# Entry
Amino acid sequence: MKKLITSLLAAALLVSSVPALAETDKPKAAEQIYYNVYSSDWPSLNYMYESSADLCANFIDTLVEYDNYGILQPCLAESWECSEDGLTWTFHLRKGVKWMTADMEEYGADVVADDFVYSASRILDSSLTQVSKTSDILYVIKNAEAYFNGECDWEDVGVKAIDDYTLEYTLEQPVAYFESMLSYVCFMPCNREFGEEMGEDFGTSNYTYLYCGAYILTDWEPGAYRVLKRNPTYWDIDNIHIEELNETFNSEASTLSAELFKRGEIMTASLTASEAQTWLADPELSKMIRPGRAAFNYSYWYAFNYYIKAADGSYTYPEEYDPENYFLAAQNKNFRKSIFHALDRVAAMMTKVSDETSARSLMINTITPPGFATGAGEYTQTGSLAAISNTDSYNADLALEYKAKAVEELTAAGVTFPVKAPFFFVAGNTVAQDNATVLKQCFTDSFGDDFIQLDLGTYVSSLAKEVRIPKLHGFVINGWGADFGDPVNFVGQEILHDSNAYYAVNYSNIQLVAEDPADYQKELVDEFEQFTDLVNAANAIVDDTDARYEAFAKAEAYMINNSLAVPCYYDVRWCLTHVNEYTKINAMFGPCNFKYVNWETSEDAYTTAQYEEFAKAFDAAKS
# Structure
């Protein structure tokens, strides 16, 4: 068997349903088995419980999907319409889609409208031991939240099977972005008979699961290996050219991929900037390397941890970090604004790419990424957010100006300098280490060594278990990919009084501060309260997309101007690949991008020059 080493799925497909992007003389790869490794396993296959079951997109289809241009396309629904009042959506399902078992056999039932009704009822069942992590997404449906809270019967909920192939959703109020929600995991179907038989064992193995998507997980040993085989009954099988994917777990995959690519053992690999320099300096190797295509659907920002205490009131930081000192400093607006203007994000991105032009193209000045919300024009160019979106936040003079103000205010409050702020990255990851080192240097370059000291630490495998839950972090970088196409997906992650505000609950811990703020914390809490009010006011606007975007832009501008979060960059790195990424699904939200459909590949690695041709052809075709 081939060695199974790569941190990315090496999948190569011929394109038949999308326009040709660019002609090359590279020989196309034939249908075959692909081998790779993965460095982290799925917690569960249960998409009715998990919120991050991304690869389940290969096992379970949804009503709609997206093509390589990001355009909405039919999937399990062949057509649909919405009532004039925007409340009732009716979907006409594709007939003859089979439910399959892990043994590659037909289960004996087609996908029907009741499968969507059943999965919704299970996701909204608050009595289960494993209460769904995505139930709140379905609250747009009439009486869904009331049912979850035990305030009405299931018959009152707006999910109905009109007949086997007609599905109807009735909403609480018009939702302009409802179609963009439909590819998310909580809108995946589940066969009622099988789901009831499995109960809460559903998805605990590949055999407690049914499949209606492009692939079937025929073999899976968590932490060891998994095998995906093409679904022989798939409705769009002509565009599924990988016959089988064999994947083996290896926690060191990311550090080995470049060498194995060079030996011809894998088809896709990524490199750090330092590795890229080595490859670029070699006349032969340089022919195979190219800059990666940025993940424009994923936004990164820096956040402060405002609460560093355990349940018993003791500090979670080790004493050498002087936790009370940081605790006081992080609440101060001028302290945060000095950091906001001190971060040279171009320098940070130079750890991933090797030229300044590429680095600048990957900067993002807003929390919501450009191109994500365009229903009423480009959202990031709306209202007061436009000036922020068009301006680099790095400004050495402003950083020093806010430093001076912070030193004066914090000295009076008893803070001593330099303030120590712990920053953690995963051990053994050279990209993460390079980023952390550059970040530390940014503070030194902007402030000297007498204001803030970034203390670098590592965790072994789980940021959540080793750092975030124990509240050891002082300053942290977040990454977020949206579930559906509305700004609330991003700005709603940092608000108060909402247990689903992921980063407010799990990273900044501002909701813990707000429960009983000390006098010196009340200004910070008041800023978050005002931000929360702005977000909630924007989210209440459902009948005017222009007004909704304007209101969200006002909220996001307030968030950034008060440095409640610090926008950072898109993710990208140098790549070695046989795959034309411009033929992949390119959705701005949901798990569609994890589907192995419509990929084009070559027996020889694509070069940077060829990728430039692909990009030009792609942009021309898209326009």
